[in-house]
Amino acid sequence: MSAEYAEHFRALIGSEHVIEDAAEREYFSSDISGSGDAIAALVLQPGTVDELAACVRTAANQGFAILARGGVMSYSKGYVPTRAHTVIIDMRRLDRIVEINAQQKFVTAEAGCTWKKLYDALSEQNLRTPFFGPLSGIQATLGGSAAQNAAFFGSASHGTMRESVRGLEIVGADGKLFQPESPAPFIGDAGAFGIKTTITLKLIPAPPECAFASFAFDNFPALLRAQSAMANTEGLAECFGFDPQSHRNLVKGGFNLFEGAALLGDVARTHGIGQAFKTAVRVTRMRDLQYSLHAVVEGNSVAETDASMARLTACAKDAGGTPIPDTIPRVARAKPFRPIKALLGPGGENWLPVHAIVPHAEAERLIQRTSAYFEEKKARLNRHNIRIAFLTVLIGEKILYEPQFFWPDRLSLFHLRNVTDKQRARYGENAANPDARQAVMEMRQELIVLFEQIGAGHMQSGKLYPYLQNLSNVEQADIRALKHRLDPRGLMNPGVLEL
Ligand SMILES: Cc1cc2nc3c(=O)[nH]c(=O)nc-3n(C[C@H](O)[C@H](O)[C@H](O)COP(=O)(O)OP(=O)(O)OC[C@H]3O[C@@H](n4cnc5c(N)ncnc54)[C@H](O)[C@@H]3O)c2cc1C
């Protein structure tokens, strides 16, 4: 079937950018969480916006479902086809930075541009976007993050990607380009309204001062109380928490030995050798931690960051926390976008997160309900040797809570192409463990239902989280009307938002 259609696209973008090979198509049709129900008929790699628009037009004329694929760092089946008559558009050649306008405070880049590329280019001019990328930003693209919404760097004060976007250009199902008046409905749509071609983000001056703090807590509720209290601290850029299993994973992953040595090089380059030495001493104590909270504060002067630090310390102490060395946030910021090892657990386990986003006041209840759920599943978790680690991230007035599953299993086609060389050599022959995998998939689905019952929101809508969840009837009607207007035949990423 592929060959039959390929010739139409070869003429548009050149043979070398039309992928027909069956094994390649199978790989391109899977994500971190595995494969879907179907393998795409073709993968197209346009190099310009015009080529992209022509590909979409031609694909739509032939009744293809059309999906964009960015940095492949998602795990909610967003770019995994639901039918064979699908073309996947690989966006990575569309990665130009179109305009950095310091005066009018915006930057426009093509959607396949990575966060790292953007960050590096802006840093040269002492500029930054307010939200400036997910932890996966060495590979994750602006388009993929806009389609999923995303949060992490800068999010404690600046919110998710949605709050940093000023404008979008999109190619719709008819192959025509348009610029929506308001970008908001198009952020977090998983590409169901069209493919983002360029993204315009707000710019701020790169903050000249940065300070770090970390605190230890005996229990999760205390950490949460502190994290909520810290919100609205002037200049708070990141504020994230770990549980004991996360610390064990970091230690087991060699954070304090091998990677630690490489990370120390980054810290030394950024902060001087003396600081790197102190960091070395500190990292080795991580295994003693129970719960930990980590914060990065930015400001225009040391006086400003000192004032914020004093506030953070007071919030932590009020909640029963104690200051600990600030190694984790310092290392995270020394080089925000580093090569990704976290596709596997520290012992080569498969890894899969699920998350919920709630207002601060709801976070404790969410965590209690989730802990009760896992308590109930203890025997099943033990039987399959499944471990759970927890992460919390402050996003303005909300808390993102992320349970992460780790279990022994084979490396998938996706893993084999995306893990590090070392991981592939070490774990490439791991035995398949379909029973554990099945258990994880079921528990992940049950958690999504539980989170829905609690009224939690989420990012990363793909085919995993129901897209319209948590919207009022009026909002749902608006979204459906928009979909109907832009994509009446339901060709753009079917499975996300059906008509
Ligand atoms: C190790 C690791 C760390 C992570 N850390 C974070 C984090 O800190 N914060 C966070 O929010 N997420 C995080 N994620 C999840 C993921 O990286 C982000 O959601 C990221 O934004 C996805 O971008 P991508 O380019 O990889 O998108 P892809 O995975 O390629 O695609 C994601 C979705 O976007 C759609 N899409 C892609 N490009 C376009 C386009 N141009 N137009 C329309 N639709 C498009 C796809 O169809 C798909 O539905 C992490 C993932 C990993 C593996």
Which key features would you list for this structure?
single chain; 499 residues; alpha+beta; Uridine Diphospho-n-acetylenolpyruvylglucosamine Reductase, domain 2; Uridine Diphospho-n-acetylenolpyruvylglucosamine Reductase, domain 3; Alpha-Beta Plaits; 4 domains; 8-stranded antiparallel sheet; 5-stranded antiparallel sheet; 39% helix; binds flavin-adenine dinucleotide
Would you mind describing this structure in some detail?
The protein is globular, with a radius of gyration of 22 Å. Strands 12, 13, 14, 15, 16, 17, 18 and 19 form an 8-stranded antiparallel sheet that branches. The chain contains 19 helices and 19 strands. By secondary structure, the chain is of the alpha+beta class. 50% of the residues are buried. Mean pLDDT is 93; it is low at 257-264 and 276-284. The two termini are 27 Å apart. It has helices at residues 2-13, 22-28, 49-61, 115-123, 142-148, 155-158, 161-164, 220-230, 244-252, 258-271, 273-283, 302-318, 327-334, 360-376, 378-383, 413-418, 421-427, 434-454, 473-486; strands at 18-19, 42-44, 65-69, 86-90, 97-101, 106-110, 127-128, 165-171, 177-178, 195-202, 204-205, 209-217, 236-242, 291-299, 322-324, 350-353, 356-359, 387-395, 398-407. Bound molecules: flavin-adenine dinucleotide.
Nutshell version of this structure?
The protein is built from 19 helices and 19 strands.
- Relative helix content: 25-40%
Low-confidence stretches: 257-264, 276-284
CATH topology grouping of the largest domain: Alpha-Beta Plaits
Structural class: alpha+beta
Hetero groups bound?
flavin-adenine dinucleotide
Number of domains: 4
Going by CATH, the architecture of the largest domain would be 2-Layer Sandwich
User: What Rg do the Cα atoms give?
Assistant: 22 Å
